[in-house]
Request: fold
Amino acid sequence: MRAVRLLPHLLLRHHRRFLEDPAGTQARLLRRLLRRAAHTEWGRRYGFAELARARDVVRAYQARVPLHTYDDLRDEVARMRRGEADICWPGRIRHFAVSSGTASEGTLIPVSREMLRADRRFSIEVGLNYLLQSGRPDFLRGRHLTLPGRADEDPRYPGTWAGEISGLVARYAPWYVRLFYQAVPDRLLMLPNWEEKLRAIARHTVRQDIRLVVMAPTWGLVLFKLLLEEASRQRGRPVTTVREVWPNLQVFISGGVALSSYRTLLEELIGEPAPDFVETYGASEGFFAFQSTLDDPAMLLHLDNGIFYEFVPLEARHRPDPPRHTIATVEPGVRYALYVTTCSGLWSYAMRDVVRFTQTSPPKLVVAGRTGEMLDLYGEAVFGDEARAALEEACRQTGARVRDYHIAPRPAARDRLPTHQWLIEFEQPPADLSAFAAAIDAHLQRINRHYQIRREARAFDLPEIVALPAGAFLEWMRRHRKRLSGQSKIPRMRPDRHLADALLAQCANFASSAETLPDSSA
Reply:
């Protein structure tokens, strides 16, 4: 155990090296990536060998290599799946992460062996950093429960694997993790039916000493409720908290969706004492940042994990030649669209995520939403992180607890002003929906000048709150997702009403249990 205590300090020394020179660390990483891919098709197309020799490698790279979206990569991905080599990255790519949709129809991200090793290293470093921060090694004395998605060999392309990045990484878990820590055997972790898998995991772990869990908060809530049902059935009495089942649970490592929206619900389900929470930021394209200190929700950007980062100011992303910032020039408080260059052969690739730095030394950020998560049909310019903060403030003021939500524009009619319609599945509804709406409205006016101006001019109405019945969002995913998985989640905001109208139509049979806040203009 003494050796285990020394590992985090070695990690800290490693992090200090690249945090002392973040711009230099990123420039050196970019130069390595260009050299490694110099003889690929993309390397010859853009002259990577020449760029790698440039004195200012970042400036030379940005001057020659444009920003890319998935459409620029789609044909190359199809060729890589057929077995062609040396296209975007040297050698043959045999792993593809399904970022959305299915392996046949969705967005497939190439994942090199270098990236799989970087993803595995990231996970280990998150655990070691937590050990350093907490000083509590007890979580290493029990089992660890992860909730990976599924990854399968593609029958159409023998020798290639496609699935969720968590499933691909799980296939290459270190032997000592499988032997000493993995709580659930692969035969259960890779069950094809997601809900069946959750039930099987609950049954398998109800008598285990689980000390660390890694999963999206949304699915953590579902799994924990199944666990309590199973424990109650086996014990013949009600079991109301996870702590009664897993008394030594120490840390919840979160990813996929914003933890802040679910932390209170998780703490209530788990019971006292609450575990430590560590939030991470990763995607099919790579793992980017993690919560390096327990008392600060902002996440430390990992600068030496096979990924070179670029940041385009959100309002400039549609310009023909937008400014491309690096870690050397970003500013706190500005919303940036994130682009990544990776050791899987993605070159200045659009992540469709919006990030905002809370500080630059060391570089810490929060995920402010998706590039499509903004409502601005009426000049209100409300971003995803602002809506989330307003919802959390309304819960704080009213004692409500929210399970899931979706926001859509509600257009003007002859007798009403335009506004936003908030479809919310409450775990604990507020006593007064009007007070809840007013709290959201007040917070948005306080933090968003555009919204405030339109409210003061009475060009925009108070939010409309629709309380949906329990299970509404899960039922929508069952009906509209071809396969539920760890990556299945509800879009928080959309500028159209496709999802909102589908949800309302689905819930028509529950109209008596759904309360709607009347229009303030009525």
Notes: Residues 29 and 69 are 22 Å apart (CA to CA). The two ends are 68 Å apart (CA to CA).
